[in-house]
Amino acid sequence: MHCVKVLLAFVVCLGTTRGLYFHISETEVKCFIEEVPAETMIVGKYKTQLFEEGRQMWLPSSPGIGMHVEVKNPFGKVMLSRHYSAEGRFTFTSHDSGEHTICIGTNTTRWFGGNKLRVHLDIQIGEQAVNYPEVAAREKLGELQLRIRQLLDQIEQITKEQVYQRQREERFRLVSDSTNARVLWWSLGQTIILILMGIWQMRHLKSFFEAKKLV
Amino acid sequence: MKMRRGGRPSLLNLALLVTCWVVGQSRATEMEIELKDNAVQCFYEQIEKGQRCFLEYQVTRGGNFDVDVALFGPGDRVIYQKQRKQYDSVDFTTTESGEHYFCFSNEFSSFTHKVVYFDFATGSEPPITDEIGKTHKAFTQFEVSVMKIHEALTLVRDYQTHHRLRESKGRDTAEYLNERVQYWSLGESILLVVVGLCQVFVLRRFFANKRSQI
């Protein structure tokens, strides 16, 4: 019976599932980080299913649920903050290189508790986000031209990643240089403080003993 | 969509690629998740029997850069389970259809957050358009070259990602070191001055009002 249920659920979901899914409660917000170079397009598709307690099953589609998607850029600034229906698609292009945070949650007004939700999520980055059949139809490209276009998109993405890599390596180098300089100057400074403290201590004690007429 | 074949594509690989283009559903998801202390996060996917799947993960930030990972098949059958791993990749073929899931656990850590990168791919790459998938014809030399280049470029992207993750870990440690050097040096200098002053004043107190005994 369980096998049949699983198989049935699988068949029902076959037309509508997209990749990975995870479970959240109504009040929870799940965040994902994507580290991407600048000027990269990111397309996210999601679908939410509600778990019905009465029938102990996942409803194939739950149009009543509203989802809130928030995207933050590497500096913490909100790039995209929109409400969508239970099934939706969001797109954004990164302006800066770095870690972008994509947070998905429901727009419920409750503070805790709530129903269990299953969210199917599919995030595609860069050249993987391009819909090639659409491009072929729109620009009337032949098969070979389309393949060459795909190669060009891939190379463009590789170039962007290399530029980002150069920026990261520069940052790494600056940090290492800064550590080097800090270690040098602090060591020097501490040695000077040590010597000065020693001199001050001796002079202070000498004058103290002289005042007390012990020396 | 990623292809999971290392090394240079051989003729056999290409033949496999062509046949896989006619059949096969493919998915690939890569992302980073943040695991708070004592958190567990699971991801599920419905996969058919006989699909070649690939899971790769690496801990990019936090503590000892380790995480507990478990990969289950339908009926909670364990396919892969490791404790406190920093990075690994699992290449497996599904033996039954159903819900497969994998979980990352940070339950052993009481106060460090971890950021885990993972890449989960199922099946092989789908054809670029539906028409190509349906027609079955011989490919010209040119087309074969183009396909080879495509596979090589996908490999390049993979290498770039691996390089980025390794470098990210190194950079994180360097930034942390930089910060620590600053704060500890400052603290040590202040301590130096305070201890010096304390020594002198305690010594003075020994000699005060005990002049007669010295």
From TrEMBL, chain A:
Localization, UniProt: Membrane
Membrane topology: Single-pass type I membrane protein
Keyword field: Coiled coil, Membrane, Signal, Transmembrane, Transmembrane helix
Pfam families: EMP24_GP25L (PF01105)
GO-annotated cellular components: membrane
Ranges of residues in domain GOLD: 29-125
Family according to the record: Belongs to the EMP24/GP25L family.
Name this polypeptide is given: Transmembrane emp24 domain-containing protein 4
Organism: Geodia barretti (Barrett's horny sponge)
TrEMBL record, chain B:
Compartment(s) where it occurs, according to its Swiss-Prot or TrEMBL record: Endomembrane system; Membrane
GO cellular component, one term: membrane
Species annotation: Geodia barretti
Location, primary (coarse class): membrane
Membrane topology: Single-pass membrane protein; Single-pass type I membrane protein
Signal peptide as annotated in the record: 1-28
Transmembrane segments: 183-203
Domain of life: Eukaryota
UniProt KW keywords: Membrane, Signal, Transmembrane, Transmembrane helix
Pfam families attached to this UniProt entry: EMP24_GP25L (PF01105)
Record carries keyword Membrane: yes
Tagged with keyword Protease: no
Domain GOLD: 40-122
Name listed for the protein in its UniProt record: Transmembrane emp24 domain-containing protein 7
Family: Belongs to the EMP24/GP25L family.
SUPFAM superfamilies named among the record's database cross-references: Supernatant protein factor (SPF), C-terminal domain
